[in-house]
Each structure stands twice: as C-alpha cells, then as structure tokens.
Amino acid sequence: MSDIREKIIGLKQYMDSQILGQEDLVKKLLITLLADGHVLVEGAPGLAKTKAIKTLSNCVDATYNRIQFTPDLLPSDITGSEIFVSATGQFEFRKGPIFAHLILADEINRAPAKVQSALLEAMAERQVSVGGKQYKLPQLFMVMATQNPIEHEGTYNLPEAQLDRFLMYVKIGQPNADVEHKILELVRQEEQNGEQLTTPTACAIQVSDILQARKEALQTYCSDPLEEYLVQLIMATRNPEKYDADLKNMISFGASPRATISLDKCAKIHAWLAGRNYVVPEDIHAVAYDVLRHRIILSYEAQASGLTSEDIIAKILGFVPLP
Fold first, then answer.
1. Single pTM value for the model
2. I want to staple 109 with a disulfide (CB 3.0 to 4.6 A). Which of 147, 185, 271, 305 is the partner?
3. pLDDT: is 99 or 86 the higher one?
4. What is the pLDDT of residues 249-267, one digit of tens each?
C-alpha cells in the first residue's frame, strides 16, 4: 500500500470513529473528494451530515464554510459582491463564503432557483463571475449539499438537469440501537472532556496530499470488458426495451454521459480505497445507486406504481449481464 493511500485510509478510520453509524456516508464523501466532484446528501435531521464534512475539513489543511440556505437568501450572499470604497473611489470585490475548499450547502432545497443556480454555476465552472470579471475558486473545491426529506413546505426542489451536476446523491438512514448507544457514549465523553478541536497528527492531511491521492486513485486499472459493462449499464437506462419491455414504460429519460464518467471515476476510487489497483464488478455495483439515482427520470406510470429510482437501478443491474 502506497504512503498516500495509507494517509487516506487513516483519515477514513478517524472519521468513522467520530461519525458513528455513517460509514457509507464517510466513504462516499472521500470518493467524491478524490473524484473532484460534489455530493448531495439526503437524510433526516441529526444524522451527522454537518459533522461529517466539518470533521473532514478539520482533518485536511483546508478552508471550510457553511452556507445555510433560506428562502430570503440572495445569490450575492453566496458568491460575494462589489462594494464601493469611498476612500479609493473604486469598487472592490468582497468574496463570499463560496471561496473555500470545502462547502456545506445546508438545506439547499429551501432556497429559490436563482440562489441554487449561483451555487451550481460555481460547482460546474469552478469560478464566480461578478461585474464582468471572473474569480477562480480553489483547485480543491467540493460542495456537500444537504436536503431534508421530511420538510416539504416552503422548499424548492432541484430540477433534474441541475441534479445531474452532483457526482453522487447519497441517502442516509437512522442508526440501529447498538450504534445509538455508542453515539450516547461518544457525546457524553465529549461533554465531559470538551469537544476535540484538534485532529490527531496521524490523519492530518495537506491539500497537496488530496491532489496526489486523486491522481493515483484515478489511475486504477479498469479492463475493457468491465468498461463495456459500465457503458452498457448506462445504455440500459436510455434503451431499456432491449432488456425488458416493461422497463421501457418505467423510464422517461435515461442517464447522461456525466453518469458514465462519474461511474467510472467512483468505481476506480472505490477499488483504490479497498486496496486494489484494478476494478471488479463489485466496485461498480457499490457506487451505482448513488451515481444513478438522480440521473434516471421515472415515468408517471412508474411513479403511480410506487416504484423508485432504486427499484429501476436494481432491475438494470439484474438485466445487464456481467462480463
């Protein structure tokens, strides 16, 4: 195992010890970070979504900002704006909270379309345009957006085309009883000893380490048959009638080319984190749901039947033959 991989594994182990019961979320956060993407996380309140990315920022020598999305938020509240300075008689650009390495966009579905678009433009272009000038964002830049599934009043759902800009869409659930006991113990220890503000040296990582790990992980080997299998999974979302006549009536729009690229990157990084330098089918299956669930648009017939994107993905994984 390479030194940089050991550092990333150490980071994962530390985060798992601090964010109990959310090992999958931690893994998907690291995959997103190494794939140079962004992640949308859906889960009920109190499931450590905020703590996850805050712990990650504490472990990495990187800047972190949290943006609370509300109905009255303005695009300039995110990107920044030009301020007139009377002393100089000129306008100066004051950077907004988007200028950081790691961004938590909390409850993104509570803000109107203009504000969502300002964030998504920065995600896609890695820059902010204000007053006819472009301002570059850091090379290491990741947005973790959250949305609350139990709050519907006063929310603005992201359009499907904008959802496509997220590398992964992760859904997290409630912990079981054993994990709940461990959470109680951890919180009691933090209250008695004071919340740990410094990160152990063993998992302190520089931005350059992340960039190096990203380069190494994406060099993971994917064989031609597996690459063909990956592509056929995407093709099955666009031409489902080739596999099943009923499946055709369940999908109104299939996954975009971004899905192919994302599935390839995430599978490689999943294999790399597992200690392998090559991809196996299990790596593709491990990330398929998070990569595809927001990129498959169900038909009205499928929605009326109570089917979900997860149901369709499971059918596709069953229909497309393994290499």
1. 0.91
2. 147
3. 99
4. 899 999 999 999 999 999 9
Cα(103)–Cα(180) distance, rounded to whole angstroms? 28
- CB burial of 30-46 (b: ≥16 within 10 Å; e: otherwise) equals bbbbbbbbbbbbbbeee
CATH topology of domain 218-319: Helicase, Ruva Protein; domain 3 (1.10.8)
pLDDT in tens, 271-296: 999 999 999 999 999 999 999 999 99
The pLDDT of residue 197: 45
Domain ranges in the chain? Answer: 3-192+200-210, 218-319
Q: What is the dihedral of CA 28, 312, 254, 243, to 10 degrees?
A: 130
Asked if the 3-192+200-210 domain carries CATH number 3.40.50.20, the reply is no
Tell whether the torsion through CA atoms of 157, 160, 161 and 165 is positive or negative: positive
User: Within 10 Å of residue 251's Cβ, how many Cβ atoms?
Assistant: 24
Cα separation of 302 and 65, whole Å? Answer: 39
Structure tokens at 267: 């599978």
